[in-house]
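Q: what sequence does this backbone want?
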């Protein structure tokens, strides 16, 4: 930040609204919101997190206490979730949505409002929204974003974390995108998808996401702590079908003996090994600290990203920062874009290609690992925290001067 930037008007409060927030929360959008909040607070903004008391997105149980607390220089306001409807409509309509059926507008509204609501959060923004200089919402799909985004659209900056999935085509999201004061995208492919699906405001920008690389890694210490000999592949995140976890397990089951590999995983969700995959070939670390995850990244022969539904994929970049090559699902346009630009990994288009990539790792881990060489430079060049923080800071200064006026006309320019 330059001296002139230090004199800029950062009066007013920036509210950031994720569906979940906290050190135990696993999720890319939630991580981006957290890092953005602290980057802005470090640059002199008054920052509030408005979120729920939930820790996981399966039950939405209220595990954190409601009320106000502090996380460093950031104020955190938590509101209780309401899950007093049975969720049957959301499940039935969600299944129809995934099958390709077209939902009526009434059905879309029912799908959105069944199961989870956060009335206290909604009323807080309704009562106090005019006092916020900007309200940053992420990701697009959740009730917290959908409902709050309708209250003060002229002050709303959307960080959609968008990927190509059936929900992205629902009509109920059109006003959220077109009416926002501005939109922050994390990657070029995400912005291009949004341009195809929505009428966008004039204020849009690809800001990326800051990746803070540790000063040191301890791969040998990680191996010693967990008794790991020989090469292993690593996956970190949510262990669920939507993230490609079951496909990864199936491919690993078929090749683990011939490849001589183990699978190490950390994060949330049940591992649920398929028949034929011995338990001693998979090490579940559960939820781990950032340091432990970084050491696992550095010790791995390859990091596998099986998800097709990614808007940025932080773990891929963290693996490159640790000097580890990546095997990624080619169906994710964003991850394919990262791999093509960096040259630090491979993508697969079928289960057979994933099995072949795993076999290559097992056959010669050192040769496969050499592929990661350009990865760290790619991360440092494009996702340096200082540059990302300065960019977001300047955009907020530019976009929120005179907040309260109507959003600029549509144009889709970036």
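A:
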């Amino acid at each position: 930040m330059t001296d002139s930037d230090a004199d800029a008007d950062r009066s007013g409060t920036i509210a950031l609204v994720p569906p979940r927030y906290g050190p135990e929360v696993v999720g890319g959008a939630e991580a981006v919101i957290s890092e953005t909040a602290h980057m802005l607070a470090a640059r002199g903004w008054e920052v509030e997190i408005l979120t729920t008391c939930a820790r996981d997105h399966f039950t939405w149980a209220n595990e954190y206490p409601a009320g106000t607390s502090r996380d460093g220089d950031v104020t955190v306001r938590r509101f209780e979730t309401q899950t007093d409807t049975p969720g049957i409509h959301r499940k039935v309509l969600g299944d129809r949505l995934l099958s390709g059926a077209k939902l009526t507008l009434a059905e879309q509204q029912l799908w959105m409002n069944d199961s989870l609501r956060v009335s206290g959060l909604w009323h807080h923004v309704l009562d106090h929204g005019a006092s916020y200089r900007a309200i940053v919402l992420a990701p697009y799909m959740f009730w917290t974003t959908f409902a709050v985004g309708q209250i003060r659209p002229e002050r709303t900056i959307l960080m959609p974390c968008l990927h190509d999935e059936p929900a992205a085509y629902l009509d109920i999201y059109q006003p959220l995108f077109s009416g926002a004061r501005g939109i922050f995208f994390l990657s070029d492919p995400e912005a291009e998808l949004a341009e195809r699906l929505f009428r966008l405001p004039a204020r849009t920008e690809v800001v990326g996401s800051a990746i803070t690389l540790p000063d040191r890694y301890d791969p040998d210490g990680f191996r010693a702590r967990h008794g790991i000999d020989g090469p292993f592949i690593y996956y970190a995140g949510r262990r669920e079908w939507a993230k490609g976890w079951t496909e990864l397990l199936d491919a690993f089951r078929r090749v683990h003996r011939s490849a001589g590999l183990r699978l190490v995983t950390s994060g949330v969700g049940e591992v649920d090994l398929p028949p034929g995959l011995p338990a001693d070939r998979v090490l579940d670390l559960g939820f781990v600290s950032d340091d432990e995850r970084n050491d696992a990244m550095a010790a791995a022969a390859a990091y596998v990203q099986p998800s097709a539904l990614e808007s940025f994929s932080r773990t891929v970049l963290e693996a490159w920062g640790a000097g580890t090559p990546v095997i990624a699902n080619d169906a994710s346009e964003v991850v394919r874009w990262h791999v093509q630009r960096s040259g630090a990994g491979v993508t697969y288009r079928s289960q057979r290609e994933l099995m072949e990539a795993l076999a290559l790792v097992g056959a010669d881990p050192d040769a496969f690992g050499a592929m990661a060489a350009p990865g760290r430079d790619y991360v440092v060049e494009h996702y340096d925290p200082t540059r990302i923080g300065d960019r977001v800071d300047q955009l907020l200064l530019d976009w929120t001067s005179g907040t309260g006026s109507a959003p600029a006309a549509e144009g889709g320019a970036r």
